Amino acid sequence: MLTKEQNELLCRVEGAAAMGQLARRHWLPVCMAEEVPERDGKPVRARLLGEDLVVFRDSNDRIGVLGEHCLHRRASLVYGRNEECGLRCLYHGWKFDVEGNVVDMPSEAPGAAQRLGKKTKAYPAREGGGFIWVWMGPQEEMREFEPPAWAPKPGIRYAIVKMHAACNWAQVLEGSIDSAHSSSLHSTNMPSAEVEGSTATGSAWLRPSTDKAPRMQFEATSYGFRYAAIRKPIRNPDTHQYVRTTLYIAPFTCLIPPNDQYNLAQMLIPIDDVNTMFYWIAWHPDPKKGISQEAWRKFCAATVGVDLDSSYRKIRNLENDYRQDRAAMKQGDWTGIEGIPTQDMAMWESMGPISDRSQDHPGSSDLAVAQFRRMMVAAAKKMKEGGPALGTTEPHVPHVDLASFEGVVPKTTDWRELGIAHNKKVEA
After folding, report:
1. Calpha distance 332→71 (Å, rounded)
2. Closest CA to 350 of 100, 134, 210, 171
């Protein structure tokens, strides 16, 4: 359990909050690249760490991430004209380039823009792995952008689900690193079967174990941590074990156990203190495997216009009890809630906007969650004291060299040797 003060330190990200300052020392996804596909196209509204932003691609194909509100009179630039290498406010025509410079002020005397040299809030941006990434930290501390785990080389097919969660980022991330809950909450979507390992079908992921009480083992690393959830397999339980490893890459990324068709990652990005953007990425380096964007969103019940509105907010939500089907539950569906992400969000959002962890009663299966809390509270305290941000120190391991693991292996196998690409060393 955490004290109320520790819980605040863990959860708060807005303004000068230590956890938000830690986040600003990393490249963060501000939106999907598909949301800004066209030069001179419609600007996109975004919100990150409590800041309202606007994202656009200019006529030279450069990405701009600006404060949403015009420097002049605070009108939203989301409605602005994207033209000739800049974004022009509709109200008085002030125009801003991707670096935030005011390059035209038609409501002022000729030459005013050049003479006054005004500049609005602007953040450096990069594109990679299906996302637009932004650096919101101090310019002198800006780190080189590196591709995410799902984009080790060009041409890899990845599919992305995006969904709004109406709660704090930490309770969302704790769900991603909680391997035990999948045996219960997602048991309809991940049923037990006599298979060699997690096997993906069009409607389910078959799992080679009926064990709902995994034994947890943990290892701290320079990028965060990784842990193993070890279960008894259906086949050969006396000689083998079913191992699922999860990696936490500070501050907001998790590589969760794959299946036989695609690898899986989640990013849990704080919109502000009480809202989170949930991204779930599926990919595989083998072009014969993977899953299409359309099929992935259908599997997750996360299709815009069907399951989500245009702002990626859920049609099935807390206000309508996630349209839970109690009749389906009587017929064998564990939750009566459609879609793995929505099942998760029903649990996360029902805790309240910010869960009071001083009231928790953790068990042995909560090892990773407990370690996450300790690690992040300590990291936030170090940040307040002027120390380095978690995940920015040596030894640095490229994220493309990291991988989770899932499979049945002999009991003599050390799980720490599983899933790490090229046998990279990843100690803390």
Report:
1. 57
2. 171
Decide if 58 contacts 66 (C-beta within 8 A): no
Under 8 Å between Cβ of 87 and 81: yes
In angstroms, the CA 121 to CA 2 distance is 36
The tokens of 367 are what? 């090892």
- 58: closest CA among 94, 28, 100? 100
Q: What does the alpha-carbon distance between residue 195 and residue 361 come to, in Å, rounded to a whole number?
A: 35
Q: Cα separation of 58 and 282, whole Å?
A: 29
* Mean per-residue pLDDT, 334-359: 97
On the question of pLDDT at 223 being above 60, the answer is yes
Q: What integer pLDDT is reported at residue 1 of this predicted model?
A: 80
Q: What is the β-pairing status of strands 51-57 and 63-67?
A: antiparallel
Reading the block at residue 31, the tokens are 């939106």
d(CA 203, CA 292): 14
SS (H, E, C) the chain: CCCHHHHHHHHCCCCCCHHHHHHCCCCEEEEEHHHCCCCCCCCEEEEECCEEEEEEECCCCCEEEEECECCCCCCEHHHCEECCCCEECCCCCCEECCCCEEEECCCCCCCHHHHHCCECCEECEEEECCEEEECCCCHHHCCCCCCCCCCCCCCCEEEEEEEEECCCHHHHHHHHCCHHHHHCCCCCCCCECCCCCCEECCCCEEECCCCCCCEEEEEECCCEEEEEEEECCCCCCCCEEEEEEEEEECCCEEEECCCCCCEEEEEEEEEECCEEEEEEEEEECCCCCCCCHHHHHHHCCCCECCCECCCCCECCCHHHHHHCCHHHHHCCCCCCCCCHHHHHHHHHHHCCCCCCHHHCCCCHHHHHHHHHHHHHHHHHHHHHCCCCCCCCCCCCCCHHHCCCEEEEEECCCCHHHCCCHHHCCCCC
Neighbours of 261 (CB within 10 A): 17
Cα dihedral 204, 209, 210, 212, rounded to 10, equals: -90
What integer pLDDT is reported at residue 422 of this predicted model? 38
Closest by Cα among 420, 2, 415, 414 to 171: 2
Per-residue confidence (pLDDT) for residue 425, from 0 to 100: 44
Phi, psi of 207 (to 5 degrees): -125, 135
- Check pLDDT > 70 for residue 207: yes
Name the band, by pLDDT with cuts 50, 70 and 90, for residue 428: very low
